Amino acid sequence: MRDNDWNDPDWRAAAHTWITGRLADLGTPVTGAIEEFRSRPWSVTHRAPTAAGTRWFKANITGCRYEAALAEALAGIAPGATLVPLAVDTGRGWLLTADAGPTLRETMSGTGRIATWTAMLQAWSALQRATVAHVDRLCALGVPDQRVSLLPGLLAGLLADPDIRAEVKPGVPALSGEYARWCAELAADGIPAALQHDDLHTGNVFADMRFFDWGDASVGHPFGTLLVTLNGLHDALDTPDRQALLHRLRDAYLEPWTDLADRATLRRSATLACRVTRVSRALSWQRGLTGAVIPVDEMFRDAPAAWLNELLEPTTI
């Protein structure tokens, strides 16, 4: 039985036995059939009915299975800020949670979007500040270490992959020296490494501002989270004042960090972090696609190279 091969009937039986046993231990036994809810190349989710409501099981591909240990650790590091697991198997990367209701994406109204996004970004900053003292522990749990000083070497490793190298634009390898200079400047800004979600959007935050979905997360420059978040908000905003609103949202995120640097430095770091974190995105896609359990859609296959090609483009802020 391959590690976390959710197409294998024996694996599925073992997972269902674990789910059933853990829920029985918790006094909420399964009341019906456990069903596969979503299967992707990098993770699978099953739904288990109980008298206390739906329970969710998640397993990740080997390169992302640290999510279970990370979710468990965050429950103690930032109480109330994340979805607390009901049970975990850190060795196998299995995670069991209760249903937590709708996400921000499902509940957010058009008129209150800016206020909601502001609250989300500031809540996320607070969670990140709580993780600063724990980054070595998180790395020891398997969370990828993608601190800024390591990124130039990690970029070189990606470019050494012949499959990725074949898809990147010629200008990307030539950018390596400048990329290293961006990283050096960012590393000197005085902002400590923290948990970096790497896929933070309104679909990964519950309506009560609890965060979840850690399969892309890493330890890195905290402001790198803004790459995906602000790109998503940029696309959601279709108004003449879009850029001003993005700056306002960026500044709301940066507000909890103003004790560490002046606003001009923080804004410069946010721009640099959004640019260099494109390598982190490429790495997260590489982890999620390596040894994929099910066939990878063509739209995902070249994602690592696509993110590296973004290094040639300006940021949204």
UniProtKB/TrEMBL annotation:
The keyword Transferase applies. Residues 65-254 form the Aminoglycoside phosphotransferase domain. GO terms for molecular function: transferase activity. InterPro entries: Aminoglycoside_PTrfase (IPR002575), Kinase-like_dom_sf (IPR011009). Keywords: Transferase. The keyword Protease does not apply. This is Phosphotransferase enzyme family protein.
